[in-house]
Amino acid sequence: MSSLAVRLRDRFYANDAHPYRIFERTVAAALRSPQDTLLDAGCGRTVPVLRRFAGRAGRLIGVELVDFTEVPPGIETYKTDLAHLPLPDACVDLIMSRSVFEHLTDPDAVYRELARVLKPGGRIVFLTANLWDYGTMVARLVPNRHHAKVVKTVEGRAEEDTFPTAYRTNTRRDVCRLSAAAGLRVTGFEYLSQYPNYLMFNGVLFFLGMCYEKLIARFDALRLLRGWILVTLEKPAQPQ
Questions:
Q1: Region 201-228: what's the mean pLDDT?
Q2: pTM of the shown model
Q3: Any idea what the CATH number is for the domain that residue 90 is in?
Q4: 142 lies in a domain?
């Protein structure tokens, strides 16, 4: 990590809310009752986001493909595919998912399964990469077998926590199509920017990336180029 990049980030992004924080605020606002059931789809091995909602929801459920470690008491965990949840129909009030939907290879099946376990009127809030972000476009050019090493070098993330990407539900068109097929409706869709975290290893590249990010964040006409999409879906209270 470049010291110049750190100084630039701290100076020019100190007052900017990271998409992760915006996501968490959106999830918190979507909780309607302290008795709600909240499911984190792709929660991570230590359930880092889900644990922040302890005491704010009546039942917390985490689903992940890897083995769990250091899970706090009171959180249910299931090691399973998102397309095959071991839960009954209509038992969840709210589903959240952060940085997971870009990895879905069969999003149709996942959307249908999430809709199945949602109660009527229930919601899904997910944050994922925008297909038209420059970082996403570069990542699509790199074979998945090399992603783990690249991410470890650039972000310092462990290779076992890096998964293949598919980008099959990372545009507004794809989200609308998949939602409609699963009987869900899109009630929120935002394009979000952040600092160029993939360029933190080089100060000059970070500066160039920062100029680009500030430009697309300032002008709404360029929102399609922002790095993240934040989506809210709802299961109708009455069948459509």
A1: 95
A2: 0.90
A3: 3.40.50.150
A4: yes
